Amino acid sequence: MIRFGIVRTGTGATTQCVRCPREPYGGHDSAEEILARVQHAVAEWPDGPGPNISLRGPEPLGHPEIERIINETIGFGVERLSLVTNGVDLAHRGTAEGVATARVTHLQLVILAADAHSHDVLTGSPGSFDSAMTGLRVFREVCDSLGVPYMLCGEVPVCSHNVEHMPGIVGLLAQNGVRSVALDLSRAPASQNTEMWVEAALD
To answer: Are 145 and 100 in contact (CB under 8 A)?
Structure first.
């Protein structure tokens, strides 16, 4: 399994359930701070494929200097670069093209539900589900047209408000070209019901 070093873009997360206690949001850190973390992760990279970096935290594509961050990260010799994203900005073709041509190899889309109404309610962001699905499609089309290799991944922060959505989310993402889905169970309720939905998602 290919390992990624996590580099935080700031304090907070790109997508959180508004009905749960939320991770404190402090916004983006400066490009200099983020790039210093990248340099440290590259310098400490162990033997094996890589170095590989995943940018995670407040929406990476919302950082005012994301283009510089991506370009300099690749310039440090990073082999694979992943963005953990809500996918909304990728609905703009120009953004998708910029990400693809900058050699971002992996996208990890964070999704909370298997339908627009539920996802938008849980994120508190109307229209975000449709934009995310459009962004996934546009990025895939752009990469295919440019002949750029890419890997689409998914991530589901599981909580008591979306646990029953896990199988539907996995199916939805698979239908949209996603190759792997991570279920984050750190905030999931510890119950037999949760285990049942996890098993259904894995199936």
So the answer is: no
